[in-house]
Amino acid sequence: MNNKELREKYRSMAKWYDWAEGIPEVLGLNLLRKKLMKRAFGRVLEVAAGTGRNFKYYPAKCRLTAVDMSGAMLGFAQKKAKDLKCSITFCLMDAEKLGFPDQSFDTVVSSLSTCTFSNPVGALKEMGRVCRTDGRILLLEHGRSSWEKIGRWQDKGAPKHAEMLGCHWNREPLDLVREAHLVPFTFHRTFFGMVQVIEAMREPVMSEKS
């Protein structure tokens, strides 16, 4: 599914997206969001912010910029920010082509998004590019279960699931992070091995290693 098709998919899904995500939130995904977002600091960029489910969990001192490729999803996110009385900068933007200078942010966040990117490694590289060298990249992602029976079931249904929802649910987020030359330093699996919580940083360049 290309980005144009994905954008149209999310336009049609925007109205019921929060409702559809309600069950995993009640089962504990909201607690993972809360714990991870508390680690954000300074200038924060949330990539593929969707309807803004993470907004209420950020520390009050964070200066948040939220981007998404779907104008419909951002519309719901803007309403949520208004209800929460949050001051947030919103940008319609492709995660694979972030329109910010290098090292613009102290923290870069993405949740449940690498499954949808047409080029997930490219998007993660962009997150690393705009993050400061001493900054943090916070990821809450789902992917192929470490429980092999569930993983094989995901593999079998992956093509149909991707066609229906634009979600490649058997990707390996931790592997993608490493392919993007990011360095994970905390990692945790939960939800039957399908959800990964990753805290990473930019890979030091040669001049920084010497």
Question: What layout of secondary structure does this protein have?
Answer:
Elements: H1 3-13, H2 17-20, H3 22-37, E1 43-47, E2 63-68, H4 71-83, E3 88-92, E4 105-111, H5 120-130, E5 131-142, H6 148-165, H7 173-179, E6 182-190, E7 195-202, H8 206-209
Please provide a written account of the structure.
- The protein is α/β, with parallel strands linked by helices and 210 residues long.
- It has a single domain, classed as Rossmann fold (3-Layer(aba) Sandwich), CATH 3.40.50.150.
- 40% of the residues lie in helices and 25% in strands.
- It has helices at 3-13, 17-20, 22-37, 71-83, 120-130, 148-165, 173-179, 206-209; strands spanning 43-47, 63-68, 88-92, 105-111, 131-142, 182-190, 195-202.
- A 7-stranded mixed β-sheet has the order 3-2-1-4-5-7-6, with helices on both faces.
- The protein starts with a helix and ends with a helix.
- The mean pLDDT is 90.
